[in-house]
Amino acid sequence: MNTTDEKKLQRKEEAALMARIANRDEGAFADFTEKYSALIFSTAFKVLNHYEDTEDIMNEVLTTVWKKAESFQSAKGSLVTWICTTARNRAIDRVRSVQRRGALYDRYEDKVMGEAPEKRSTGREDLYRSDARQVLRSAVVKLSPEQREVIELAYFEGLTQKQIAERIDSPLGTVKARIRRGVDRLRVSINDGLRGEGELLLTSISG
Fold this sequence. Notes:
Blueprint: H1 3-22, H2 26-48, H3 51-68, H4 79-114, H5 123-141, H6 145-155, H7 161-168, H8 172-193, H9 198-206
């Protein structure tokens, strides 16, 4: 068998594997996971250079394969190329998400501080504001990228939940759940850091 025939056979086998996964064949998905997880991980790690983030991306790519296996088209390229492209794009998206964190912190801080009425403050109030900023920064970091995304769109771009769902191409129920979980996590983190006084700060953010 020559090289061309070998490639054709490989493409047929790849297409057959992905077709089985598209038909929700858990055995085929297990075979895929065993064979390609290391490739997904190494591709993402080259971009991220961070173990935990790379694990997250690997799991995201595997989830995509399970949900959208039918999107693979063997005529357009090999399965390895498709996998590497998907993993690299997801990793780049994660880098961009991290880069947006700094701007997101600043926007949180501007909103909290900008909405406060101008008046002479006491030393205690200045200290509280300083502590609040640090607590808020830490709280936002703990959110998942998905939660940060919807909260930013809701609170800083003023989009409705339906508009957010359309923007990120997710079900409305998913968007609602992400916002609810994100706010709940912020509420716990802020109240823990500010000894129960965080609800007022959170209201100023989400109002």
